[in-house]
């Protein structure tokens, strides 16, 4: 059986390590370690300086860890108590009444791009980039026709 206080401290350390060390804390520890490895005793820091720098590094790490935690009250305040008006996606928490809009290419987009002068250039792009190009408009039929998608992905 594990003492609950030890388990709590152990869990806190795992949390801190999984989030990574604070950069300032890490630099303080590394600088101190480098100083302690100096060739001559005169170049090494005395124990008082070592203790002071370790305390400083630990305080930086503690502040970093504390900054990563947000209270439930602050989250409720920021989300207006998890108001439905703040939902932006679907499926994450069992809700199916919200959908994430994703740009959609017309089903015949390959044929549309083949009608342009630079069809090979277009067909090697990612679908998101193709959607953006179609939204801006492309010239077809030797530059005589402008094809573009409207705001709701309807063809113009």
UniProtKB/TrEMBL annotation:
Entries under Gene3D superfamilies matching the protein: Phosphorylase Kinase, domain 1
GO cellular component, one term: plasma membrane
GO molecular function: transmembrane receptor protein tyrosine kinase activity
Identification of the protein by name: Serine-threonine/tyrosine-protein kinase catalytic domain-containing protein
Organism: Lactuca virosa
């Amino acid at each position: 059986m594990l003492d609950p206080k030890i388990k709590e401290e152990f869990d806190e350390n795992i949390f801190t390590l999984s989030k990574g060390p604070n950069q300032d804390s890490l630099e303080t520890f590394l600088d101190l370690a480098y100083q302690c490895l100096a060739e001559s005793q005169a170049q090494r820091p005395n124990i008082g300086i070592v203790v002071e720098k370790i305390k400083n590094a630990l305080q930086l790490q503690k502040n970093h860890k504390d900054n990563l935690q947000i209270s439930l009250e602050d989250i409720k305040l920021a989300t207006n108590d998890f108001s439905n008006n703040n939902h932006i996606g679907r499926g994450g928490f069992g809700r199916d009444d919200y959908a994430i809009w994703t740009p959609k290419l017309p089903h015949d987009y390959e044929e549309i791009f083949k009608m342009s002068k630079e069809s090979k250039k277009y067909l090697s792009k990612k679908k998101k980039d193709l959607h953006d190009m179609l939204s801006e408009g492309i010239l077809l039929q030797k530059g005589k026709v402008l094809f573009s998608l409207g705001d709701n992905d309807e063809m113009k």
